[in-house]
Amino acid sequence: MPDSRPDHLTWRHRALIVAVALLFAALAARLVQIQIVDHDRYVEEAALTRFGVVAVAAPRGTIIDATGYPLAISIDTWDIYLDSFLWRDRERARAAAERLAPELALDAGQLFAAGTAQRQGDVLLRRGLPYGQGLAIQRLGLWGVRTLPASQRVYPDGELGAQLIGYVGLDGRGLWGIEADYDAALLGRPGRISSERDPLGRPIAFADRTERAAAPGGEMRLTVDRFMQAIIERRLAEALKEYRAPSGSILVMEPRTGAVLAMASLPTISPTGHLDDPDLPALARNRVVTDLYEPGSVLKTLTTAIALELGKVTPTSTYVDKGYVDVGPSRIRNWDFQAYGQVTVTEFLQRSLNTGAVWLSGLIGADDFYPRLRAFGIGEPTHIGLSGEAEGMLRLPRDAGWYPVDLATNAYGQGLAATPLQVLTAVNVFANGGKLMRPYLVGEIVTPQERRVFSPVEVRQVVSPATAATMAKLMEQVVEGVEYHGARVPGYHVAGKTGTTIVSISTGYQFDTTIASFAGFLPYEHPRVSILVKIDQPDGGLRLGGQVAAPVFARVAADIMEYLDGPAAGRTAAAR
Predict the structure, then answer these.
(1) pLDDT for 61-89, tens place per residue?
(2) Could you give phi then psi for residue 157, rounded to 5 degrees?
(3) Are 523 and 476 in contact, with CB atoms under 8 Å apart?
(4) What is the pLDDT of residues 455-514, one digit of tens each?
(5) Cis bond leading into 59, ω under 30°?
(6) Under a CB-based contact definition with an 8 Å cutoff, are residues 498 and 517 in contact?
(7) How far apart are CA 570 and CA 562, in angstroms?
(8) Nearest one of 390, 65, 22, 16 to 225, comparing CA atoms
(9) Which CATH number fits domain 74-154: 3.90.550.10, 3.90.1310.10, 2.40.37.10, 3.10.50.40?
C-alpha cells in the first residue's frame, strides 16, 4: 500500500502547489502595484470617468507685416454640436430644433432629422459660427445643443502673399508657407473645460465645472511690407499677361540687411480655395525658394567680381572679341552672334558678351573660380527658414562629368542652377560692401513667455569693399551707360544686369523658349532695395531679359521708390 504522507507527494502535486503559490504571489504583487505604486494614476483615471474634458482650441498667433498691419489673424468663433443621445428624447429634441433653427437660418425639420439620425455621439452642426451668434445660442440653454469655443483663421488682405503666408487646415495646423514652417510658434496652448457627468456621459446640471483658458500663440512680425507685396503681385500679373508667359517671380530685398521686403510667384493659390484641388501642391509652392533655373548673364557680374578681386583685370582691361571662342571641341558664341573687336570689361558687361565671360574664366582658372562662386552662396541653401528651399546645382571639377567647357559656360550663368533667392542674395553683395547677408523673413516673435528679435546675419565677406564698389559702378554703367536701357527709373540711378537663358529640360534644352530676368538695386549711390524679376517662357516676339524683365523691373522699382520717398522726392532726385 503506497505511503500518502505529504513528503511522498507525486511530482505533479508538487508542481500544482508551486503554480498556485506563484499565482497568489503575482496577484499580491499586482494588488501592491494598483493600490500603492500606481494609486495616484488610477485615482486620476477614475476621476476622468466621472469628469468629461473638452479641449478648447487656442487662437493662433497673429502674423503682421513690417508696418504692423495684420496679414493673418484668428477670431473667436463657436462650434455647434447636437448630442444625439440626449435627442433620443424626441419631445425635447423637437422643441430644441424649433428654437435653434431660426438662429441658424435652417429648416427645423431637417435640423431635427440631423440630430436624430444616429443613436449616440455628437453631430457637428456648424463650425466657425460668429462669436456673438454662438454666445446667444449658448445662453438659450437648449436641450442637447452643445456650444464649444473655437477659433477661425482670417486673412484680411485675401490672396495677398498667399504662397508666402500660407493657410491653416481644419485641424488648426499650418498647411504651407509661414503658417506651416512656424507652426510651433503660432499654435499656442489649448484650453480645457472639465465638467462632471453622469454614467452615460451627460453633463450634470449645477455640478462642478473647471476651465483652463487657452493661451494664444506668438505674434509674428515679418520683414515683408504689404504695400510692396501688393505692388509686385500687380506688376507680375500685368507682365505675364503682356508677355504671354505662364509663370514668373519677383523678389524685393533690403540689400544691406538681407530682409525680404516682398516675394511673389504666379500662378498662385487662394487661401480660401479648395484644399482638395489636385493642383494645390504646385500652386502653393513658393517658387522663389523652391525652383531652380539657369540664371544666365546675371551671373556675369559674379565672374567679373572674382576677376577684379584676384587682380586679373580692371574695368578698362581689354580683350579682342571675335564673336566666338573655342573651348576644346565646343564653340561658344555671343548671344547676338556679333563680333565687337577690342572690348573693355565695362563694355563686355554692357553688351553682355559670352566671349568676355569665357575670357575672364580663363584668367581666373577653375581652382579659384568655383570656391569663390560658392562663397557668393551659389550651390548652397540660404537658410531663410522656409521649407522646400533648394540647394542649387553646381558641378565642380572633382565631380564626375565635369569638363573644361563647364568652366566657360558657368562663367556666364549656364550649366548651373540656382533659386531666385540665391541669385539676388549674391547680387546684394555689391550693394553691401562685399558682405553676403543671410536673407530673413521674420523680424520678431512675441509670446507670453518671451520676445525674440531676429537681427541681420553676415554670412561672410565675399569680396573687398573696393571690389564691391567697383562692381556696383560697373552695374550702374550697364544701365545708365546704355541709351534707352529698359531698366532705367526716372529720378534714380539703377545698377543691374539682365539675364537670358534657354529653358533646360530633362533631355537638354528647349531652344525655342527662354527665361528672361533682371537683377539690380537702387539708388545706386545708397542702395535701399534690390529687385529680381524672372519671367518664364515669354512669348509674342519679345524673349530677352532686356526686352521683358528690365521694363518690369523699372515699373516695380518706380512704384516702390514712390511709395518709399513720395513723388516729390523722386523729382528732387531727378533734379540732382
Answers:
(1) 899 999 999 999 988 888 999 888 888 88
(2) -95, 20
(3) no
(4) 999 999 999 999 999 999 999 999 999 988 999 999 999 999 999 998 766 666 666 789
(5) no
(6) yes
(7) 7
(8) 65
(9) 3.90.1310.10
